Amino acid sequence: MPRSAEHICEFAGGLSESAGPLQTADAQAAAADERASANGNGAGPASAVAERPRTPAEERQGFPSISGSGGVDEYEGIQMQASQRTSGLLVRVRNMVKHFNTSKGVFKAVQGVDVDIEPSSICALLGPSGSGKTTLLRLIAGLEGVTDGRIYFDDLDATDLAVQDRQVGMVFQSYALFNHKTVAENVMFGLEVRKLDVDRRKRVEDLLELVQLTGLGDRYPRQLSGGQRQRVALARALASNPKLLLLDEPFGALDAVVRKQLRAGLKEIVQTVGVTTIIVTHDQEEAFDLADKVVIFNRGFIEQIGSPTEIIRRPATPFVMKFVGDTNDVPAASLLVRRSRFLTSKSRVMFRPSDIQLFTEFVESVDGHLVTGATVSERANLGWTVRYTLRFDDDVEVEYSVTREQADGRLGLDIGQRIYLYVKPEAMMGFEPEDIDSAPIL
Ligand SMILES: Nc1ncnc2c1ncn2[C@@H]1O[C@H](COP(=O)(O)OP(=O)(O)OP(=O)(O)O)[C@@H](O)[C@H]1O
Ligand SMILES: [Mg+2]
After folding, report:
1. Domains of the chain
2. Is 103 in the pocket of ligand 1 (CB under 6 A)?
3. How far apart, in whole angstroms, are the C-alpha atoms of residue 136 and residue 114?
4. Which atom from ligand 1 is nearest to the alpha carbon of 249?
5. What is the pTM of this model?
6. Across the chain, how many H-helices and E-strands are there?
7. Which of 23, 133, 438 to mutate to test ligand 1, by most ligand atoms within 8 A of the CB atom?
8. Ligand 1, closest atom to CA 127?
9. 344: which of 62, 231, 383, 418 lies 20 to 30 Å off by Cα?
10. How confident is the model over 151-178, as pLDDT tens digits?
């Protein structure tokens, strides 16, 4: 079984997971800070990492043993060139189930999840709040024990591997740096976890260069911007040359501009180092921009796994369709659906506003499909876009957006104006309201 959470936080470089679920992220960071202070110096809790012989499976996989004696591993350096990159882990999650016992009964947070994450790739976990993303990440890290299912790192069954033996680096939403330590000492802490026999100063310099913080090693966290602090956390997570990097909303506390900058930096760093990376995010743009593979979660299940393009172009389920872009949703019996000749056994139909073809002059049909008349009922100015509400003769309404420039020009519409719409049936998807429900399952 995985070690205690206390141990884990130490391995994760001072990210205090042990402070308990009711504490805020800041409180957890403070708790981590306090524990480190109590240890009296920079070496701190890392010295608690236990000595343990390697299992035969680990020997085969080349997993290093963790030893308090130091000098076991050679200096691995920061792999700056593609040809020397670390080969990240192949992560395979099989039939993963996690139930929590609560006062109201069993809560099914993860309900049979299968996913493969290729070596050195970036995988994004995306989904509504409470859908099980963090829980899956914690299961992979070993911070939670599984209810059922297995986790494999390459060919090694890692399900019951102790956290500190998983070669995992972690960054969480809160910066969770040690406030009483300098930037360099914070990064060095990550290094101490594995007791690598290395030129530590050089190593820290390399890491700071990697995250573009060269020269800031002597500063304290309070003297850094939020984005810089998060980069220190990343450097610390990478210090022990992990084969797997787990990021839970790493940029969650930052504003949009800084997020974008860090995102570009993260992609480059991950590609440079070659570490397999799993990132949990609420931000769809971030997920689609960063990831090779996106996993869409809902209520503890996976709705779809695919490349960003596949998910956007070919949403597999009504939930994904609704979750990853704007949709209009109308009754299946509405005039528009019937005239488009879209056949479905479901009660409702959705389609993207961008799939609306709109004509200001009367046309009978497009590609043999009848066009449906409607009236412009509302106009909302939303900064760079203008959103029109269009009402069909059966009182069903849909939304249609154009850029401000288009609205001011040829595509501008007037309230009360008669227009004609066509949505091709291939762009429509039938669904029932429960298909798009995201309430967690008790
Ligand atoms: N220790 C626990 N005990 C009971 N329930 C838990 C526990 N940890 C998580 N849960 C529940 O499991 C569900 C999934 O939680 P999880 O943290 O994985 O969600 P998430 O997808 O990461 O959400 P968010 O986007 O809000 O971070 C939630 O409903 C949560 O309340
Ligand atoms: Mg979460």
Report:
1. 5-313 (3.40.50.300), 326-432 (2.40.50.100)
2. no
3. 11
4. 27
5. 0.79
6. 13, 20
7. 133
8. 21
9. 418
10. 999 999 999 999 888 889 888 776 678 9
